[in-house]
Structures are given as structure tokens and as C-alpha cells.
Amino acid sequence: MRTTRLQRLVWIVTVSATLALLLGLAAGAPPSAREQERRIMPDAKITGFHLVETKDGAKLWEIWGDLAEVFEKEGLARVMKVTQQVTVTLYSGEGKLTSRSDKATLNMRTKDVRLEGNVTATSEVGTSLQTQSLDWSAEDRRLFTQSPVTLVKGGLVSRGVGMEAETNLERARLLSRVQSHVIPGSAGVANKDLSILQKGGTP
């Protein structure tokens, strides 16, 4: 009987020491990425968000969204879809591009815009694209992405990975894995578009 009690006492002490050691290690462990993200709280939340950015009296972009979170220290505003996609209109000397996405991040210092999630965009003349991420540089007013992209211009459909383009998509360069095909019945329009679409990389 005495031996059994002694064994039980040793077992309890061992378990208690192990628990104390584990709790001590957990307390001293660096916070996980999720915990760090929770600590970064927005300075403001805005519903029914609409913002217009101008430079020298000319519009750079205009953005509408269900919800925006503003991070003043980081100089960022994140606009998110709740029920409707975020709408971003980008402006340049060549024309404008209307795009929609699940999320848009605005760099309030550089005025750059990043679109993410189910991105679609259409120019004034009807050229369109689909991708999962799209960046727009305010300095030179150009678009770029490293994601797979589908570009539809007139009767020509082109797919590739990575793209650089003017804001109005009139001149675009697919960077790699390029494949193009003509929509039936639009060969004449597509041949004209092939002279404008610059393709790079290998299929």
C-alpha cells in the first residue's frame, strides 16, 4: 500500500513539473503570426466607403467599398467586400479602367493601389482582364501582376502568367506561358489586336 501511494505521489509531481515547464515555455515563446495580426488594430473603420485621390487637379483613382479599415501608422487603407465587390476606377492620360475585386489596399503615401481576389477590369473601349491580383503604380500609372491573367481585346483572348500594361489596357505585355486564340467570327478584329498586344516568354 505504501509503495502504491509513493508511486502515485511521484507520478503527480512529475506531471505537475511537466505542466509547469510547458506553461513557462509557452509564456516565453514569441507570439504567432495570427496573434501579431490581432494586435494590429485599425485606427478607424468606415462603412459605405468612397474616396477620390487627385494629383495636380487630376484624378488618380476613385474607390467605393462596403467597409474600409484605416491604419494611420502604416499609411494604409484596406477596403473590403461585405456584400458587394470593391469598385476601383483608375485614371490616366490614355483613359480610365473600371475594376472590381474582393479587396483593395491603398498606400496613402505613394497612392499606389493593390487589388486582390476575383479581380476583373474593363477599359472604356471594352478591353477586359481577369486575374487574382493586380497592382497599379500611381507614379507612372501602369498596371502589373505576377498572377495568371486572361486578357480579352476585340476578338482575341490571351492567357499568360504575369502582365505589364497601360491603364487603359491598349498596350499590354504578357510575361510568360502565353497562349492566344481568336473568338470565332472575329478574325479581322483579332489580327489588328495582335499588332498591339506584345507577348513575352514561352507558352
How would you characterize the largest beta sheet? 6 strands, antiparallel, barrel
Total number of beta strands: 12
CATH topology name of the largest domain: lipopolysaccharide transport protein A fold
Helix share bin: 10-25%
Helices and strands, in order, run as HHEEEEEEEEEEEHE
Short description:
This protein has 203 residues and is of the alpha+beta class.
Protein described:
The protein has three helices and twelve strands; from the N terminus they run H-H-E-E-E-E-E-E-E-E-E-E-E-H-E. It is of the alpha+beta class and about 200 residues long. The protein folds into two domains: about 1-30; about 40-200, Lipopolysaccharide (LPS) transport protein A like domain (lipopolysaccharide transport protein A fold, Sandwich), CATH 2.60.450. The termini are far apart. Strands 2-3-6-7-5-4 form a six-stranded antiparallel β-barrel. A hairpin with a 5-residue loop joins strand 10 and strand 11 (about 170-180).
Which structural traits does this protein have?
2 domains, 12 strands, 203 residues, 53% strand, 3 helices, 6-stranded antiparallel beta barrel, disordered C terminus, 21% helix, lipopolysaccharide transport protein A fold, alpha+beta, disordered N terminus
